[in-house]
Design brief:
Helix 8 packs antiparallel against helix 16 and helix 11 packs across helix 16. The protein folds into two domains: about 230 residues, Citrate Synthase, domain 1 (Orthogonal Bundle), CATH 1.10.580.10; about 110 residues, Cytochrome P450-Terp, domain 2 (Cytochrome p450-Terp, domain 2, Orthogonal Bundle), CATH 1.10.230. It is mainly alpha-helical. It has a three-stranded antiparallel β-sheet with strand order 1-2-3. The mean pLDDT is about 95. The chain binds carboxymethyl coenzyme *A (CMC). Carboxymethyl coenzyme *A binds next to loops. It comes from Roseicitreum antarcticum. Belongs to the citrate synthase family. InterPro entries: Citrate_synth-like_lrg_a-sub, Citrate_synth-like_sm_a-sub, Citrate_synthase, Citrate_synthase_AS, Citrate_synthase_bac-typ, Citrate_synthase_sf, Citrate_synthase_typ-I.
């Protein structure tokens, strides 16, 4: 028969060509369309980065204004969607709600997602970038039993998200510019990361010609796991469980013990064998935000820094090239903003949506697009005859 390359976990298989994101794992380098993530995090902002990822170039002032206008035009979700949310248990995890609601968008926008039409793909992309914050905020509001808050287009993208999460009819949330800037930076740092598990899922789903909202729902489902986007929730819960600096050695010992399934959450990466550049920016951001909020005495941040310091000196972590990843410090910032841990992964999902949809678009324009169809090495029983039930 045919001969296949066996590559579990796809550690050495390139599944596509792409012009969007570049990672050099040994150097700890991450570029979006050629621009270093550090520069984008410092000088740009999320919607500009969305434009860059989608169209390949930084926008002119006029292009940016037009793009922002197109996005804000689509921030509301159909009113009927409210009923869809209400079908979930009131204490449903917001990721569960998001998988369902984003998938259901395919039923609302089937009219405008004829994916053979480039213009319709464009509309789908804009809708997704515009609506994901609204959907994530609604999932949050539903989970805490508060009324949904409509988007407010006079606010910027991050400020609007904070508003939809934290305003209540009794009191409007006054958006703190420090927090909206920090929120925007978190979105930017998560915007794309080449062929990670969830992006590969979106591409695989899209390769069959599936509706783009359904493809993004598949990406959200994949992101949820603790080895991927779910690590940010798991990481803060771990830091809280450790609680105090004196308990760190116990957890380091557990992470090294091969008989213990425990891993240091927010540590290690398939591609980075050096510092995750996003973690560096996130750490600086955590310091900045906590200081500006006057809570630099935060015990969780102390535990995180000391854990990082000890791990980076430990032979086990050094020899395996395990460094903090993007999820290590993000939770500390989100916690300081007032988000419960269950919202950390939904925030990752809404930030990554632009990466997913940019990659989906890139794939749909590829004249050589083929349905993704890996093969396997069969290790089961050889061909054999059926045995009647009374003879078994
Ligand atoms: N704590 C302790 N040991 C670890 C860790 C960790 N966090 N990560 C990897 N190792 C060990 C692992 O046990 C293995 O040891 P050995 O070779 O002796 O069996 C070795 O390092 C290589 O690990 P691997 O699982 O083969 O590596 P991978 O590339 O398949 O996995 C990973 C990468 C990110 C899933 C893994 O490092 C991990 O589980 N980390 C914790 C979860 C996490 O923080 N995920 C977020 C990833 S970054 C952003 C995102 O995708 O959301």
């Amino acid at each position: 028969g045919d001969v296949f390359t066996y590559d579990p976990g796809f550690t050495s298989t390139a599944s596509c060509t792409s012009t969007i994101t570049y990672i050099d794992g040994d150097k700890g380098e991450l570029l979006y369309r050629g621009y270093p993530i550090e520069q984008l995090a410092e000088k740009s902002h999320y919607l500009e980065v969305c434009y860059l990822l989608l169209y390949g170039e930084l926008p002119t002032a006029a292009q940016l204004e037009d793009f922002e206008h197109r996005v804000t035009n689509h921030t509301m979700v159909h009113e009927q969607m409210h009923n869809f949310f209400r079908g979930f248990r009131r204490d449903a995890h917001p990721m569960a709600t998001m998988v369902g609601v984003v998938g259901a968008m395919s039923a609302f926008y089937h009219d405008s997602t004829d994916i053979s039409d480039p213009w319709q793909r464009e509309v789908a992309a804009i809708r997704m970038i515009a609506k994901l914050p609204t959907i994530a905020a609604m999932a949050y509001k539903y989970s805490v039993g508060q009324p949904f808050v409509y988007p407010k287009n006079s606010l910027d993208y991050a400020g609007n998200f904070l508003h939809m999460c934290f305003s209540v009819p009794a009191e409007e949330y006054i958006v703190n510019p420090i927090l909206s800037k920090a929120m925007d930076r978190i979105f930017t740092l998560h915007a794309d990361h080449e062929q990670n598990a969830s992006t590969s899922t979106v591409r695989l789903a899209g390769s069959s010609g599936a509706n783009p909202f359904a493809c993004i729902a598949a990406g959200i489902a994949c992101l949820w796991g603790p080895a991927h986007g779910g690590a940010n929730q798991a990481c803060l819960e771990m830091l809280r469980e450790i609680g105090t600096v004196d308990r760190i050695p116990e957890y380091i010992a557990r992470a090294k013990d091969k008989d213990d399934p425990f891993r240091l959450m927010g540590f290690g990466h398939r591609v980075y064998k050096n510092f995750d550049p996003r973690a560096k920016v996130m750490k600086e951001s955590a310091d900045e935000v906590l200081e500006l909020l006057g809570i630099e005495d935060n015990e969780t941040l102390k535990v995180a820094k000391e854990l990082e310091r000890i791990a980076l000196e430990d032979e086990y972590f050094v020899s395996k090239k395990l460094y903090p990843n993007v999820d290590f410090y993000s939770g500390i910032i989100l916690d300081a903003m007032g988000f419960p841990t269950a919202m950390f992964t939904p925030i990752f999902a809404l930030s990554r949506t632009v990466g997913w949809i940019s990659q989906w678009k890139e794939m749909m324009f590829d004249p050589e697009l083929k349905i993704g169809r890996p093969r396997q090495l069969y290790t089961g029983a050889p061909a054999r005859g059926y045995i009647e039930v009374e003879d078994r």
